[in-house]
Amino acid sequence: MTRLFSFLSAPLSIVALSVCSAFSHAEYDTVFIDLAQGEDMSHFRLGLGETPLGEDGEKVTSMFYLSYFNSEDTVVEEGTNMGEQEVEIIALGAGGFGYLKDPSQKGGAEFDFEISQTEIKDTEYSRKGLGFRTQIFVPIAAGLQSNIGFNIRPFFLASDWDDQAQLEYEYQLGLEYAFSWDAQLYAHYRYVAMIDESDNDVTLAEGSLAGLRIRF
pTM to 2 decimals? Predict the structure, then answer.
């Protein structure tokens, strides 16, 4: 808990000031919640931001958020089973999220930048860096969307450069149902991995998640 507080204290102070400033000019203050759970992994995001009133189809939220990912999955290095290990990723992000038109017809997107810390428990692996996250929502039928997303954290944006890894990355693919611009249920396949300092491809977590995304 002390480590988490020390990681978040300074960035959270900046975020809090920025959010307060944004709220003072916001037309529609917004809370964003994203909860997902799978057999071996879980992911939670809590965001604060603003959504301009605008016309229907322009309800895109600009937000700051806190993200927490945890898995207790089998780590695989170049096809070799390294046993079950706990992986934790904590991130502070800023970006935008929304269905750009009618969610039953036109899809939408999310684009974020993150400051993150990745740890593999009971090992020496601990890495802080900057990353980029995106999700694209592609319409299939009324209310039904396909979801394609990725997150990359390259070595040249990390505070330790390539001492422990050259790249951390994630990708996901799934389906979701949009009840409205403000509430969606989804199911994803997610893959979380890194390329270490020896060019080995290391799988940190892999599996399915079911989740709920809401804003109000």
Answer: 0.82
Structure tokens belonging to residue 167: 């790249």
Which is nearest to 175 in space by CA: 152, 150, 141? 141
Are 168 and 200 within 8 A, CB to CB? Answer: no
Q: State the sign of the Cα–Cα–Cα–Cα dihedral 100, 170, 69, 133.
A: negative
Going 147 to 185 to 170 to 65, the CA torsion angle's sign is positive
Please give the average per-residue pLDDT across 33-48, as a whole number: 95
In percent, the amount of the chain with pLDDT more than 90 equals 49
Range of the domain at 70: 2-215
Q: Render 144-196 in DSSP notation, one character per residue.
A: EEEEEEEEEEEGGGBTTTTSSEEEEEEEEEEEEEEEETTEEEEEEEEEEEEEE
Q: Does 58 or 21 have the greater pLDDT score?
A: 58
Residue 112 · residue 150 · CB < 8 Å: no
Question: How many domains does one find in the chain?
Answer: 1
Which CATH number covers residue 44? 2.40.160
CA distance 37 to 210: 6
CA dist 64 to 46, 76, 81, 102, Å? 8, 33, 37, 24
* Token pair in block for residue 103: 């969610």
How far apart are alpha carbons 91 and 115 in whole angstroms? 5
Backbone φ and ψ of 54, nearest 5°: 55, -165
pLDDT band at 25, cuts 50/70/90? very low
